[in-house]
Amino acid sequence: MATESVNQAIDRSGDVFDPGLYFDQWWDEVQVGLAERVEETEGDDSSRMSIESLPGSNCEVTFEGVLHFDGHSMGNIRSSGGALIVTKRGRVDADIDVGVAVISGAVIGNITASERVLLDSDALVRGQILTRRLSVKPGAIFEGDCVLINGEDLSSQDESLEEQDELAYLVAGV
């Protein structure tokens, strides 16, 4: 199909290159892809929220509950007690301030989590992490400093089974 478009552009205009033909074909494919994604998500009644963004998006995101981030953002992400999951395709070039952070993608900025941070095996984090609990899976890359807040309480507290189940649920969604 792409070869036909190239031949049509050369045949119709002689030796002159017409980029408009390529743009129109690309735009039609984008619109079809978007329509298919809308149809896929119309029947989905899950309670999880997802954000996908274009590279270079610069907006501040504030949310409650669980947010799956699958895109590229240059704006800060905040939630007083929410859980942020940055998927493998996700990239955040800003600061994060949440209750729980599960990172499988890239974060270039500081992460503050009032409860815990989990760096999955595909995570890349460059910045400072401030949290009560930090888990780093083999393969994760962390370049920066970690400050454990309320660290004196950590040695005497074991993570409850409920907290372990919640973290397992969040990681399973990545």
Write down the overall geometry.
Answer: elongated
Helix % is: 25-40%
Overall structural domain count: 2
Rounded mean pLDDT score: 75
Q: Helix count? A: 4
* Structural class assignment: alpha/beta
Amount of beta strand: 25-35%
Write up what this structure looks like.
- The protein is α/β, with parallel strands linked by helices and 174 residues long.
- The protein has two domains: 41 residues, no CATH class; 124 residues, no CATH class.
- About 11% of the residues have low confidence.
Short characterization:
The protein is of the alpha/beta class and about 170 residues long. The protein has four helices and 14 strands. The chain has two domains: about 1-40, no CATH class; about 50-170, no CATH class.
Question: Which keywords apply here?
Answer:
single chain; 174 residues; alpha/beta; 2 domains; 9-stranded parallel beta sheet; 5-stranded parallel beta sheet; 4 helices
What layout of secondary structure does this protein have?
Elements: H1 2-13, H2 19-42, E1 49-51, E2 61-62, E3 66-69, E4 72-73, E5 77-78, E6 83-86, E7 91-92, E8 96-103, E9 106-108, E10 111-119, E11 124-126, E12 129-136, E13 141-143, E14 146-148, H3 151-154, H4 161-172
Parallel strand pairs: 1-3, 2-5, 3-6, 4-7, 5-8, 6-8, 7-9, 8-10, 9-11, 10-12, 11-13, 12-14
